[in-house]
What does this fold into?
Amino acid sequence: MTRAVPEFAVIGHPNEGKSSVLSTLAEDDSVRVSPVPGETTECRSFPVVIDGREVIRFIDTPGFQNPRRVLRWMQEYQGDDGAMLARFIEAHRGDSAFHDDCELLAPLRDGAWVIFVVDGSRPVRNVDRAEMEILRLTGCPRMAIINCKEDETTWLGQWRTEFRKHFNAVRIFNSCRATYVERIELLESLKAIDQELQEVLERVISAFRHDWAARNVRTAAIITALLTDVLSYRRSVTLREGEDEEGVRRRLHDEYVRYVEHMEQRAQRRIRSLFRHNIFDCRLPPHSILHENLASARTWQFLGLSARQLVLAGAVGGAVIGAGVDVAAAGITFGVFCTLGGVLGAAGTALHGRELLSGARLLGMRLVRERLQVGPVTNIQLLYILLDRALLFYRHIINWAHGRRDYDHCQLPDGQDRARHGFTTTWDRAARKTCERFLRAMQQEEPGERQEAGAELQRLLEGVLEEISMDRAGTGG
Amino acid sequence: MKTPWRIPDILDLEYLLARDEDTDPVVLARRDRGLYLEFIRPQVGDSRPGPGVLLYHWLRQRRRMLSAEGGDPVLPGRLWREIHGILRILVILAGLVTGGGLAYSFLAYSGTRPVNVALYLWIFVVSQQFLLLLLATLAVYRLLSGRGLRSSLLCSLLVRLVSGLLVKLRGGLLRKMDAGERLRLLAVLGRGSARLRSHGSLLLWPMFILVQLFAVSFNGGVLAATLVKVVTADVAFGWQSTLQVSAAAVARLVRLIALPWSWFVPPGISYPSLARIEGSRMVLKDGIYHLATVDLASWWPFLCLAVLFYGLLPRLGLFLAGHIGLRRALARFSFDGPACSRLLHRMLTPGLKTGGSVAGPAGETGAVAGEEVVVTGERSTPEDAPGAEPGDAGSRAAASGETVCRPGPGEDDRIPERRPPVPGPGEAPRPVALLALVPDELHDHCPASTLAEQVMARTGAGLAGVVRIGEEDEVEDETLARVRDLYGQGEAGGILVLQEAWQPPIREFLDFLTRLRGLAGTEGRLVVALVGRPGAGTIFTPVTELNSRVWHQSLAALGDPGLEIIEMVAP
Ligand SMILES: Nc1nc2c(ncn2[C@@H]2O[C@H](COP(=O)(O)OP(=O)(O)OP(=O)(O)O)[C@@H](O)[C@H]2O)c(=O)[nH]1
Ligand SMILES: [Mg+2]
It folds into this structure.
């Protein structure tokens, strides 16, 4: 049959992670998932809509409740093969014991392709063989997905051997860790299950790619806008008679920090909804966090400057740095990663020079006659720090699979770049030049140059985002 | 058989056992062993009483403890007693009022028309006979179909009602719940219906008795009202018929009706003579003025005797029968449930912790505890009881999540395991052997000796055999037939099914269990033994908490009161 929208039923034993796989594939975090088996009792279809057009549809189904009985019925069935499923459903409609089985077979009767999901971290059982045999008897085009719920690889070989007998394609796909690339790869491998799917899937995949690229462009634009707002910030206040200049400076500085915090959070919210996360809320913890991270030595150190640079910067700034900085630099591993994940490392207190680069030095402030001019920012490190934070956030968001539900203890996937501090430290000269040009443009009042520099930065970011989303690091399996 | 148990006691026992479910097993073991040593054993002596007696003593001690602890605990038994008392009074009053009122208004006689004898008989005798007949038919039907009161009509009706409700719920509400909530609700309902199944017959007898009480007082009311009317007013009884029935035919019928009492009551009173019947015939067009008062008054003794013999006495008989039935149901009541078994186990097993700590609350128990060891474990001495190997002591106790306690070699057969027939006092209980059903996939990794050891440790039962089930090409019916054959031949008194707890409980398996129950009968043990995911070289691994909960709830939803669930390895 040919249909405009390919339809895939996600089928399997109860509690194997069918709904989770579907949630990740369809980028829909509203799919009901539960550690208690029997969560899904009714089929529900989840269309993937790109640019207002439905490109593919996944159907969540309940798990098999009577695999052996169903298989027996089918083995004894004599009659038209094409009508087998319809006959089965007809024969068992009224029997509440077979409700789930009828429900899950209905999409197959209607010609859906099958994605069979198993938990690869457990051994194969006879009921699984019965289920595979049922699928074979239905004759539906099908592929198998091994979704390992635990890090247990003992049984993978067994599963592969079993699958070889029954499926045209097998893929490992971890519903909790799958990245964009893995989703695309899964779609690619779906092509193998049916000849006629190739063309349709080709279209679907290209729609996915386009959509992804478009999201990256939008993300780059959001980040560029954030930087523009933050770096070109200007204010001037008239100092009144007898007013404490230092106090005003401090107040202005605090105001600015709050402003940056606000803008950053807004940008993060926008990025988050671009990637269709509704429930999972990866915003940074409120208030103090920016203070803690934007202006603290830790942030600067891990995102902007090496420990040595930091010492220098501190020295230039006239701050007194304790010997603790160097020691702490080795001790704190990835504080910001943790912070992004909602876990604030306790190591921060170990730092002596915490307020290192805070204070008036963040902004250019100068007293012109009786007016205190604030901004624009002159310190390029702020730009790098904001960039790094945005990029980290982006990576966190795109790698947070929609099927993943352990929100309470959300952490970044482990093993991710322990060594690397931020993205920007590894940038080449050209990229740095772009950034410098951008900062300079922000300091000037010239609209043309601002626009050009902004566009250049945006292009740079688009490339970087693309790279990050293609990064295979931290993927499971 | 005499039994001290009454319904309120059983309710209290249930309640107290349920309360113990969430108490620390160590505390429980200490408490129950203490109660046994200090109070129960001195009373029962060496008579080796059956579980019913032991539990009854325990219940008395627990009630005493509770009232000592917290003033006046409201136990369900007391509530039952109170409610039942009130109900009894209400039922008697209702019977008297309806019976008396009905008869009184029926006998209202204005002097123009005599009371119709046939109608009186129809309303107060025949209709009651009809109800009695219905009851008898039902009883005979139940007897013939061999389903005792256990599957009484009311029970099955209630169960059907609940399950019908569930089907409706499934459509709407249940679908909206998440799987966890749904499972919890189904488990609660299942436990309720299990209780109904196990105690249904017991609770049915009081209802039966109440109904009889109503009928007795109804008849009493009728009788009383009739007598009062006869004594205080001038009531005329007559008969009439459109058909040309002869007085002789009526007289024959009347004599027939009077058979139960005519042999000892003088003829004039036991039924009216032919002449009087002739004389009390009413013909509407003639009026009643020509009828003799003697004739019209000749009917009432007959009517009263009819009510007495056809209404009151049978009901009194049934009332008594109800009491006897209740007595017998109570005597037959089996204390086989898993909770009772555990309690008995706690009382009768000398424990490491218990031995030392009994002295605490009891005071003078030191001597008792010392003596205990000598009496119960022939081969154990006071010294080696506390020194028992923790490893092997743990195995049994850990299974049921209980204390570290270990039956001594001689002690083991003192634990009343569940046996098909109720053991008489003094009868040494025989532990049943279980037929173990092991899934195909586990069978080869499950040496019979290890399994037997584990099963003995967890359930106290031996293995009657091991059956491989769930092979790839075998259907359920064939498996079941195989199991039935083996179960029939051997001396197995129950079935144990080994099951991996990480697998979700699917319909197919749950239905299989139900069919196994049918095979084992209500008296046979049915045990689901859970193991975890196969681990290094063994299939006997602990079950995770979540899996354990899911299985407990799913199995509870089956509503099988005797189904036991054990975990093969302590978490
Ligand atoms: N750690 C981990 N957990 C997973 C993974 N996939 C699923 N789970 C968990 O497994 C449980 C069951 O997942 P579901 O997606 O609800 O499974 P299902 O097959 O839809 O289950 P039913 O609807 O009950 O048939 C949930 O608690 C998931 O969070 C995985 O890849 N890793
Ligand atoms: Mg599901």
